[in-house]
Amino acid sequence: VYDREGRLINRDGGGFSARRTILQGTTDLRVEKECREDELFFGMGDKPGPLNLRGQQLENWNTDAFSYGAATDPLYKSIPFFFGLSGGQAYGIFVDNPHRSRFDFAATDPQTVSWNLSGGEMNYYLLYGPSLLRVAQRYHDLTGKPALPPLWSLGFQQCRWSYYPEERVREVCREFRERRIPCDAI
Question: What is the three-class DSSP state of 160?
C-alpha cells in the first residue's frame, strides 16, 4: 500500500496462511507484514509494558488476571487494533475477529510483524493516516465512538475493596461531608 506520493505505507511479507489443526479442531490463520527498520507500533488497548510494542508478543484473550504485573498478558479486554508509524507516515490495522489472537511486533523476526488467529475468518482493515490522529479518527468512524460516561463518574471517587455493611458506607459519606472532602461516588 502506497500513499498518493508513492511512499510505502505497508507491505505484505510472508502473506497469508491457514492450517487446520486436528487436535483442537480449529483453523489457525496467519498474516505476515514487512516491518521497516524505523517502524514503531502502538495500541492493543490496556496492555502492561512499554508504549512502543516493537519487540513484543501480545495475546488477545479476555482473562481475569488477578494481581497482574508489568509482564502479564493477556488481561481483561481485547482490542485487536494497532498503529504503525514509519518515516512520519501512520497507519492502523484493525483485526475484525473475536477469536483468540496473538500479535508479534518484530519480536521473533525484526523484519516481520504478524498476527495469528485461532479460528474464524481473516478480516482486517488497514487505515491510512497520514497522521496518528487521522488514523484514530478513521478507526472511530469504522467501529463507532464510545459514549461519554456520566458526569458524576469523572469526579472524586472513594474506592476500596468493600465497605460492609450499608451503615458503614453511610458513615463514610457523613465523615466526608463533615470534613468537607469532595466525593462524587463511593
Answer: coil
How far apart are alpha carbons 39 and 64 in whole angstroms?
32
Q: How far apart are CA 29 and CA 118, in angstroms?
A: 7
Q: Is the pLDDT of residue 26 over 80?
A: no
What Å distances lie between residue 93 and 121, 129, 168, 185, CA to CA?
A: 15, 11, 49, 37
**How many angstroms separate the CA atoms of 135 and 168, rounded?**
48
| Domain map (residue ranges) of the chain | 12-143, 147-186
Q: Give the dihedral sign, CA 111/117/118/119.
A: negative
pLDDT of residue 87: 92
Q: How far is Cα 15 from Cα 31, in angstroms, rounded to an integer?
A: 6
Of the candidates 43, 27, 32, 42, the residue with the CA atom closest to the CA atom of residue 10: 32
Q: What is the DSSP letter of 44?
A: S
Return d(Cα 125, Cα 91) in angstroms, integer.
10
Q: What are phi and psi for residue 153, nearest 5 degrees?
A: -75, -15
| Beta sheet of 124-128, edge-to-edge order | 40-43, 81-86, 89-95, 124-128
CATH top class, domain 12-143: mainly beta
- Tracing cell 450499608 back to the chain, one arrives at 166
% of the chain beyond a pLDDT of 70: 99
